[in-house]
Amino acid sequence: MSSRSRILLSLFALALSVCPAETPQQVISWPETGDPVVRFTFSKCKEMGAMGNQHTYVTDTTAENLSASLIRDRRFTVYVFDKKQVRIGEAGISITNVGVGQTVKFQTMMQTSGVPATLSLVAVKMEPRTISLTVNSVPQGAALKVDGDDAGTTPKMIKVGLGKHLLTFSKDGFNTGRFPVEFGPDDVSGGSVSYELGTAQFDTIQMRDGTVLVGDLDSVAGMEVVVRMGGILQHIDRNKIKSILLVQRLPPDPQPSQLPSPQ
Hints:
There is one protein chain. The longest helix is centred in the N-terminal third of the chain and has 16 residues, at 3-18. With 263 residues, the protein is mainly beta. Strands 1, 2, 3, 4, 5, 6, 7 and 8 form an 8-stranded antiparallel β-sheet that branches. Strands 19-18-17-16-20 form a 5-stranded antiparallel β-sheet, with no helix packed on it. A 4-stranded antiparallel β-sheet has the order 11-10-13-14, with no helix packed on it. The protein has 3 domains: 3-123, Immunoglobulin-like (Sandwich); 130-196, Immunoglobulin-like (Sandwich); 203-245, SH3 type barrels (Roll). The chain is 6% helix and 55% strand.
């Protein structure tokens, strides 16, 4: 055999390896049972290259939304089988923002260890989408609950799922507050909520060591401050106190003996 013939034979063998017999077109509806949501059409697989037993194939893919609502984000795994139904490779595909009745086209690249014959498709289970939200209160340091579960103290960054949620704020000396929030598919992370707690129910004494006491201030005399907490009078060294915040209180109703006599 001449050198020219050997070269032509080698080129012919290379052409066969790059462009083998194409696999037939496949149509796969998902899900397999019930009303279909997406119809995928995979063109004949075309080999793009090979190295040893590893092959790279590409297929032109179309996905049609058969449902009655927008497909925001769906991900799938395509499994590749040879003629003996041995799985020889896989690929990942995703479709986003496909309207009702719309069709999208794209290419699917597959790495295989043999020649594809058939394809199958399964949906990838996606983690529920969450929204990040910074929650604060006035004053800060309130205990925060999200849907009844403890979430720390404000300010606090939380993550919640789509839908309705209830934020509950509580702080000694202040009325408990509740704030409903709701997030939809179009909402994004990065928002914030600031809730102002209701009027304080008690006086607030901030100690120099950082401790905060709440109660009813009874008296301030000389070097002693007297505060009623839980119905018990507490005597506090005034030098240990940093500041006192007093709430507004109405004067007590006059006793009958103090009322003016009718004319």
